[in-house]
């Protein structure tokens, strides 16, 4: 059975869990990282010398790096569905997964930390505004792509869309300035209607570090959909 290490509210664990949910894979998940700790033990470091989550073990085969795990699971269980069949469509899906990490992830995660994971009295408004602008600029580029097709790699939902799920859920939930990006909003509607998204991505995160930690200890209090 597939084993997964990582607290379920971690930004890099959620895409893996969403993929697992979409693909209907049976799994056992271990709560490690964040307030659960456990990333600096010899046993965990033997799995992932970086001491980060997510990590999976599949029949003795160990893998880390969230997008690599998503690709591996889609190749094995979702060829022709989540993993596009043609080389070109698959390359486009890869391109958007890479772009997520190279361009969208940093402003998104820095913004999330600057708001939710920082005490309200210590929040830096200028930095929050600058990060919001950078993130909005990146998402504006997605708007152009989504004017061409319903999903990033074409007309159907694929692995390309998966890394963006946690980002979009938090983006549309945070109290920030958002420009009008109608195609992005429609895409988010389509993604957030998926049961596996509701189970694994729509995890409440509270409004400050204390609420964040309380929800984390409660297993992020379940998805909103079920
Ligand atoms: N590039 C890696 C980043 C892994 C990473 O930084 N994971 C974070 C959680 S999102 C982590 O392990 N943080 C330490 C912790 O949760 O205690 C990936 O995509 O998997």
Quick rundown:
By secondary structure, the protein is α+β, with helices and mostly antiparallel strands.
Write up what this structure looks like.
The radius of gyration is 17 Å and the shape is globular. The longest helix is centred in the middle third of the chain and has 29 residues. The chain contains 9 helices and 4 strands; from the N terminus they run βαβαββααααααα. Helix 1 packs parallel to helix 3, helix 4 runs parallel beside helix 6 and helix 5 crosses helix 7. With 226 residues, it is α+β, with helices and mostly antiparallel strands. The protein is 51% helix and 7% strand. Strands 2-1-3-4 form a 4-stranded mixed beta sheet, with helices on one face. It folds into 2 domains: 76 residues, Glutaredoxin (3-Layer(aba) Sandwich); 135 residues, Glutathione S-transferase Yfyf (Class Pi), Chain A, domain 2, CATH 1.20.1050. Strand 3 and strand 4 form a beta hairpin. Bound molecules: glutathione. The site of glutathione has 11 residues, from loops.
Keywords:
226 residues; Glutaredoxin; 2 domains; four-stranded mixed beta sheet; binds glutathione
Q: What is the level 1 CATH name of the largest domain? A: Mainly Alpha
- What structural class is derived from the secondary structure elements? alpha+beta
From the 3D coordinates, which CATH architecture of the largest domain would you assign? Up-down Bundle
Hetero groups bound? glutathione
Number of distinct helices: 9
The biggest beta sheet is recorded as: 4 strands, mixed
Strands in their spatial order, largest beta sheet: 2-1-3-4
The average pLDDT value, as a whole number, equals 96
Q: Report strand %.
A: 5-15%
What's the β-strand tally?
4
- Radius of gyration of CA atoms, rounded to a whole number: 17 Å
- Share of residues in helices: 40-55%
The gross shape turns out to be globular
């Amino acid at each position: 059975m597939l084993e997964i290490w990582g607290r379920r509210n971690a930004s890099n664990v959620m895409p893996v869990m969403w993929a697992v949910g979409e693909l209907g894979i049976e799994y056992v998940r271990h709560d490690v990282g964040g307030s659960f700790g456990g990333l600096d033990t010899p046993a965990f470091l033997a799995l992932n010398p970086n001491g980060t989550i997510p990590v999976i073990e599949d029949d003795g085969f160990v893998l880390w790096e969230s997008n690599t795990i998503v690709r591996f699971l889609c190749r094995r269980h979702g060829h022709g569905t989540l993993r596009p069949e043609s080389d070109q469509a698959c390359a486009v899906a890869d391109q958007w997964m890479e772009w997520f990490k190279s361009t969208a992830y940093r402003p998104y995660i820095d913004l999330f930390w600057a708001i939710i994971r920082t005490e309200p009295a210590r929040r830096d408004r200028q930095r929050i505004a600058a990060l919001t602008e950078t993130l909005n600029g990146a998402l504006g580029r997605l708007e152009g792509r989504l004017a061409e097709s319903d999903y990033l790699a074409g007309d159907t939902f694929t692995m390309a869309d998966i890394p963006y799920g946690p980002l979009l859920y938090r983006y549309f939930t945070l109290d920030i300035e958002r420009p009008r990006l109608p195609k992005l909003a429609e895409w988010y509607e389509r993604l957030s209607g998926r049961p596996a998204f509701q189970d694994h991505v729509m995890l409440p995160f509270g409004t400050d570090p204390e609420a964040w930690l309380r929800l984390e200890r409660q297993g992020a209090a379940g998805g909103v959909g079920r």
